[in-house]
Fold each of these.
Amino acid sequence: MELTLPPKVTDRAFARLAEINAEGEDPKALRVAVEGGGCSGFHYEITLDEPADEDLVIEGDGQKVVVDTVSLPFLSDAVIDFSNELIGARFVIENPNATSSCGCGTSFSM
């Protein structure tokens, strides 16, 4: 049985989530999920949400990132980061489990 390591969240990702939550009245957690579909078989779904009882909760900088139990094996040892480049600002996932990904960066296969 393979060991599932929790994903890591960078300081940059926590800082951006803190900026987003400072704009709203009701702070939310950043939910990172893996869904079937996309051009490579799976895609990341990144939303603001409330933590559920069975979620893995990663806390930092007063913020929470949550991953559901179904998505967790797909995100084992992944890095959740925030990228602010000319092409746009977005949360990105560096996933060592993905064998390939498409150009959009949100779809991958295993």
Note: The chain has one helix and nine strands.
Amino acid sequence: MKEKLDLLPGSLDLLVLHTLASMGPMHGYGIARRIEQVGADTLILNQGTIYAALVRLLQRKWIEAEWGTSENYRRARYYSITARGKRQLASETETWQRMADLVKRVLDAAL
């Protein structure tokens, strides 16, 4: 069985922004489950982690929220990415891609 991965600093914000950009408005639980699903369950997000990220993203105005009704007819807060958040997502995606390329080059050179 594979070991669960720890998040790298700053990566959760990128994952949340990307999830909202690709999936549209979602509630916090749905965002966490989607990230876990796409990550083939190699990452487990607890409620405290995801909601702290959502508060941080709200404060930075990268996402916005409104109340709605969930699939099981409960009141839930739905989050969506803002224009400012889309710009941040593009910037962070480029930075992460550059870093991943650098790490790959270094690892390939070490062989």
Note: Strands lie at 26-27, 63-69, 75-81.
Amino acid sequence: MGDTHGTTLSIHADGKGVRTGPRPEPVLILALECGRPRAGSVRYRLSDLTVVNLGRGSERRAEKAGTELSIKVPDKWMSSKHARIEPSFGRWVLVDTESKNGSIVDGHTTKRAVLTDGSLIELGHTLFYFFERMPIEAEAPALLELTPNDADPGLVTLMPSWQSELLRIRQIASSEIPMLIEGESGTGKEVIARAIHSLSGRGGAFVPVNCGALPENLVESELFGYKKGAFSGAQQDHPGLVRAADGGTLFLDEIGDLPASSQAALLRVLQEKEVMPVGGTRAVAIDLRVVAATHRDLDEMVAEQQFRHDLFARLAGFRIMVPPLGERRGDLGILIGALHTRLFPAEHPGFDIDAARLLLRYPWPLNVRELEQALATAQVLAGNELVRAEHLPDTVRSGRPPGAPRPVVLSEMDQKVRDQVVAALREHQGNVSAVARALDKDRKQIQRWIKRFGLDPASYR
């Protein structure tokens, strides 16, 4: 059978079922209010609109009249009629209307700008993302609002593709099926595992185990426990981490780092639902739900016989691939709000616009963990004052992730050429041939400039 996830069947008048699914459409996300970071984020669908009016209001609200949407934000730096977004010849454009402080798109003050996928819009001290082609189910709400106080913060998102995966996680969380969470380091796999345990309704404890941090000679004694006298230093019985999770959830983090010698023993525990302590003679029955996680490619490890295929089959009852933060830019505002709620005092005034801009433009290659560390640093440095750019790590201020090469200092002439190429790439969505035609240059010359200036055409699509 083919994969039908993310699609629905609709019945037409002729009685035939027609497969439909998510369709790409333009979306605006109110990502962050600098003075109210805990207010949450909102996603607005734009496909059936002819204009979106943006301005200051006494409270955040959205009102639709026909094909016109008006969005109000309680931001004193915004004007009451600040800007509008409207379709024009197949594209969407932002037009500054009667603003006092101007409108900024992707770091440039503008009166009129063609929006591209992922454009960052600054109106006053409020930041928006525009996405040109976000796949959304037809039945999705026209307006979706999330706040940091929503239950299970690890299971909320404004990104539809991740939202559909989270829905499946919620559906299966209360079952006994083992779950395998995969993804890059720092994406929040343990947060998701804890949310799964919370939704499971299991009365026992959530017990996290970092398989990569256990010394190889102690893995089995730490996991399965030991009897008094089993080895030198075993002065009393020790139940082990597996039995500590009896009736609850055992979270095996970095399961790909589990030594081969211990994989067989773990497999037996999962098959027999009982654990044999080191030095013991009688197995102890356990009621266990296992959630495992890894940043490694277990399929490849199984193929290369570095990981037991039978253990993999026991762990991968349901697989989840957590996307990197760079693929969830629309969630940055809600994540910043959730971390602000956890790290800062309730009366904290929020973020300076320059700091907020840096946070939303930085690529976050080390994912949510890097964002959390950046805000933890800012909390210490800013205290009860507004978070400013100087309170953020050097990597975020420079926009240069760890390990990235230092930028070349350009002459004034080279900088002008670079600005022209960047503007053309943005205008033509990274299409190098179109850029060459627009600048009346040979395509090879554009490619040479792209290489020289360290540009990535794909980032403008």
Note: The chain is about 30% helix and 25% strand.
